[in-house]
Amino acid sequence: MNKLKPLLSEYNLSGLKLKNRIVMAPMTRSRATGEGSIPNDLMAEYYAQRATAGLIISEGSPISPRAVGYINTPGIYTKEQIEGWKKITKAVHEKDGKIFIQLWHVGRMSHPDFHNGELPLSASAINPNSKAYTPRGFKDTVAPKEMTIDEIKSTVKDFGTGAANALKAGFDGVEIHSSNGYLLHQFFSTTSNKRTDEYGGSIENRARILFEVIEEIKKHIPENRIGVRLNPSLHGIFGMTLDENTIPTFDYIVNKLNDYDLSYLHLSEPFTDVTELVHAEPEIAKRYRPIYKGTLMINSAFDQKKGNAFIEEGLADLVAYGKPFISNPDLVKRFEKDAELTPWDESTFYTPDEKGYTDYPFME
């Protein structure tokens, strides 16, 4: 390991050789602006610019039309979308980069505007009381439709098809988005899941859908090319509320993930200050590093110093960086040289063109 800068040392990710331990985190950028939510040339340029990361995790990619909840997000459920993604994986691989796709279903964090007036789907009919980013601007979310067993089974299948399509598109692997208040997370939480069937009630039942998704994806791609993302102490945003069942549920999930030969587990430190909350866990890596036996990736507001410290202390194997990668396509080089970082422009995070996307300067 690079003694001075552990982040810059190579890492063997289940046989996939990463040139460093700096991961580009998945970030919605809403640039798939044309008809059919198809990944495009502008997106290929954006990802290729950042291919010096040890691993890129793509923005969330909806696995079906029912999975959509934000405008201009590139899907992974049509032939045209697969062809679009091929340009991106090719551009990244030509720069000697590695890229996983994040498979996404937003569940109740959507709006009828996306579904011809039909309600979004979720574990239970509970409004997250949040905002959905629709073609007509931000709108208040609504109470979703509680999914039938058939709808759950069909969604699990959609995750598998998404993974099969990702393989066709040339991705090195997939990340299951079971985090940040989206569909799978909605099943985990007793504040969003009031079901009384085999997907509700006990911890095992509420976590069931994730393990069904993993089993389904395994039919299409190797187990060691599957990553899972979790955000155990998410509270007060994306419609999620922590309670006394939250951390025990994630303890169970993380323990059970040891039964699989996954590529990695991607955990987020709390997005908000949860130190005063009785049932929260303010230090996610510290809690779950001793529990999880495989590769652990950590993210949320890390700088270079903190990232190096977490790897040196053995709290994580990989560190995912989000916003710094938006405004610093050469983030790895800047860490290497201890160079100043360019600040990001939040007003261009979800706008439709190259401004604030592919026009940030490189050091050279």
Topology:
Elements: E1 11-13, E2 16-18, E3 22-24, H1 41-49, E4 55-62, H2 79-94, E5 99-104, E6 121-122, E7 131-134, E8 137-140, E9 145-146, H3 149-168, E10 173-177, H4 183-188, H5 203-218, E11 226-230, H6 246-257, E12 264-268, H7 284-288, E13 296-299, H8 304-312, E14 318-321, H9 323-327, H10 331-337
Parallel strand pairs: 3-4, 3-14, 4-5, 5-10, 6-9, 10-11, 11-12, 12-13, 13-14
Antiparallel strand pairs: 1-2, 7-8
Helix pairs in contact: 1-2, 3-5, 5-6
Question: Describe it for me?
Answer:
With about 375 residues, the protein is α/β, with parallel strands linked by helices. The chain has a single domain, classed as Aldolase class I (TIM Barrel). The protein has 10 helices and 14 strands. The strands form 4 sheets. Strands 3-4-5-10-11-12-13-14 form an 8-stranded parallel beta barrel, surrounded by 5 helices. The protein has a two-stranded antiparallel sheet with strand order 1-2. Strand 4, helix 2 and strand 5 form a beta-alpha-beta unit.
